[in-house]
Amino acid sequence: MCSNLSKYFAEFIGTLLLIVMGVGAAVLAGSSIGFLGVSLALGLTLMLLAYTLGPVSGCHINPAVTLGLCFSGKF
Q1: Does the global pTM surpass 0.85?
Q2: Which residue ranges run through the membrane (predicted)?
Q3: Are 53 and 14 in contact (CB under 8 A)?
């Protein structure tokens, strides 16, 4: 069973990777890879994170979802 600290760290790493990969693809290579490339970068990153972080923290990734679940007592 995972401790709360490992869950929080997994959510932090997941959010960080999603931002770096998705926004990085859009900002650094958006003009050359187009909308399809950016959407594939975001989608494949999210899929990878769901498979790797899902068992640890539930893989909410979006901090707004995590805070909403935390405030409602369902996290």
Answers
A1: no
A2: 12-29
A3: yes
Cα–Cα distance for residue pair 32/11, rounded to 1 Å: 30
Which residues have a Cβ under 8 Å from the Cβ of 21 and sit 6 or more positions away? Answer: 41, 42, 45
Q: Which domain holds residue 56?
A: 4-71
Among 5, 34, 39, CA closest to 47: 39
Structure tokens at 51: 């498979």
Q: Cα separation of 70 and 61, whole Å? A: 13
Token reading at 6: 């490992």
Count Cα atoms within 13 angstroms, Cβ side, for 51.
5
Determine the Cα–Cα distance for residues 5 and 34; give it in Å rounded to an integer. Answer: 38
Give tens-digit pLDDT for 32-59.
Answer: 888 998 889 888 988 898 899 888 887 7
